[in-house]
Amino acid sequence: MQITDETIKYVGILAKLELSDEEKEQAKKDMSNMLQYVGKLNELDTEGVEPMSHTFSVHNVFREDVVTNGDERDNMLKNAPEQKEGAYKVPKTFE
């Protein structure tokens, strides 16, 4: 695929970039190099290679939730400036 001035202009609009003429030429070269590299990767023989979603095996690393401090509601509410029906009472933020 050939990278044209229109392609660079369009990408610049999408990225909200204002590029000088020199930057546009450099971007054209860089994008062409990237596409050539991707084309080279397409030459690889992937017959018999199983597709994967990650480069390493994925497993859950989170621990099980365990309650360690129990129900401390009454102790926490002791620090509240105001409380109502077992909850913190806070000022209204909208009408």
Describe this protein's structure.
- The structure is a single chain.
- The chain has a two-stranded antiparallel ribbon with strand order 1-2.
- It is mainly alpha-helical and 95 residues long.
- Helix content is 39%, strand content 4%.
- The chain is built from three helices and two strands, in the order αααββ.
- Strand 1 and strand 2 form a beta hairpin.
- The chain has a domain at 5-42.
- The mean pLDDT is 88.
- It has helices spanning 5-14, 21-42, 73-77; strands at residues 83-84, 87-88.
- It starts with a helix and ends in a 7-residue tail after the last strand.
What is the compact description of this entry?
This protein has 95 residues and is mostly helical. 39% of the residues lie in helices and 4% in strands. The chain contains 3 helices and 2 strands.
- Described by its quaternary structure, the protein is single chain
Strand arrangement, major sheet: 1-2
Would you tell me the structural class of the helices and strands?
A: mainly alpha
The rounded distance between the terminal residues' Cα atoms is 59 Å
Radius of gyration: 29 Å
Number of helices: 3
Count the strands?
A: 2
Mean model confidence by pLDDT: 88
- Write the H/E string, N to C: HHHEE
Q: Which stretches of 5+ consecutive residues score pLDDT under 50?
A: none
Task: Based on Cα principal axes, name the global outline.
Answer: elongated
- Range of strand content: under 5%
Biggest sheet details: 2 strands, antiparallel
Helix percentage range: 25-40%
